[in-house]
Amino acid sequence: METLRWVASGLRTKAIALKMRISAATVEFRGRNARRKPGAKTCERLSPSP
């Protein structure tokens, strides 16, 4: 979920990776997995509800 929050806020993959202390590939992997969820085709739909 944290990865999705950063993506939704507009951060780039490398910046997210640095903040989370994970690799850029892991950020991309998590994003791909999130987009596989039903109804999650765009970043707006990926962002969690407040």
Per-chain topology:
Blueprint: H1 2-8, H2 13-20, H3 24-35, H4 43-46
Pfam families: GerE
Domain HTH luxR-type: 10-37
Protein name: HTH luxR-type domain-containing protein
Topology pattern, helix = H, strand = E: HHHH
Report the C-alpha radius of gyration, rounded.
Answer: 10 Å
Q: Helicity level, as a percent range? A: 55-70%
Number of helices: 4
Structural class: mainly alpha
Beta-strand residue percentage: under 5%
What spatial form do the alpha-carbon principal axes imply? globular
Largest sheet: number of strands, sense, barrel closure:
none
According to DSSP, the number of beta strands is 0
Q: Roughly how many Å apart are the termini? A: 13 Å
Which segments are poorly predicted (pLDDT under 50) over 5 or more consecutive residues?
A: none
Whole-number total of structural domains: 1
> What number is the mean pLDDT?
81
GO biological process, one term: regulation of DNA-templated transcription
Pfam families: GerE (PF00196)
Domain HTH luxR-type: 10-37
Protein name: HTH luxR-type domain-containing protein
